[in-house]
Amino acid sequence: MNVMLRTLGIPSRQMSGFGQGLFDDKTRQYIVNALDAHSWVEVFFPGYGWIPFEATPDNINAPINRPATRALLNVPSTPATEASARPRPIPKEPAVDAGGSSSNSAFPDIWRQAVVAGGALLVLLIIGLLLAARWLLAVKDIPRIWRRLLFLGDRLNVPRHQGDTPQEFGGRLASFVPPLDEEVRRLANLYTRASFRRGGLSAAELAEARRAWHRIRGSYTGLVVSAWRDALRRGRVVSAEEGAASENPEPSRRR
């Protein structure tokens, strides 16, 4: 109604408030609560002002009755009997079937939650695999390659002593992974050159380091998973400090 009146150029406005509520015979007052919330339209008539209209009667809010004469307009109104007898809508409660259908209806919700939880775990697993793949595949420079070898050594419980040279630690790590002995020792030598030689590695040496790392990388994930599985069997969990120490390019110091 409000929109149609405005399209015709008639001033109108949307109002919101409350209906008259229920009349209490004891207190002789109207009781108004949230269930009596209501909206209506008011139209402006020149010389009369804003006149309310009940465009959508709902059998709850009584239609607006306007006196026919000015004298009746000033007559005090009395509570209508239908106002006190007006039924108030009661919120519906879910019906419970004695046959047990209500308990059966809970299963779809449980399955829905299980599917959502499973989907979330699957997404987290995929993200973890992608991050792990990037952690391995994105390594191209010798310092990062060496940090990955230190991480592997910590997982395999390779001893690390104060003052270890890369060759000393590389030799011990190579003894833990005999199939990769040559590659590990070669990377230890190349890491020493990259750290102490002026100008670092040549292009050929860097390519050689990447080839060695490529061969180690094929077995890297299996070695780490196997080491974690053995640690869980022994009841040993790698601490956060050990994980942080493995990211340190320098050999860790045992106190």
List the helices and strands and how they pair.
Blueprint: H1 2-7, E1 12-18, E2 22-24, E3 29-31, E4 37-45, E5 49-53, H2 70-73, H3 81-85, H4 101-137, H5 142-155, H6 166-176, H7 181-196, H8 203-233, H9 240-246
Antiparallel strand pairs: 1-4, 2-3, 4-5
What is the total domain count? 2
Order of helices and strands: HEEEEEHHHHHHHH
Helix content: 40-55%
Quaternary assembly = single chain
Report the β-strand fraction as a percent range. Answer: 5-15%
Globally, the shape reads rod-shaped
Q: In whole angstroms, how far apart are the ends?
A: 84 Å
Number of strands: 5
SS element count, helices: 9
> What is the mean pLDDT?
75
- From the alpha-carbon coordinates, what is the Rg to the nearest angstrom? 41 Å
Report strand order across the widest sheet: 1-4-5
- Which class of secondary structure composition applies to the elements? mainly alpha
Low-confidence stretches: 79-85, 237-241, 243-255
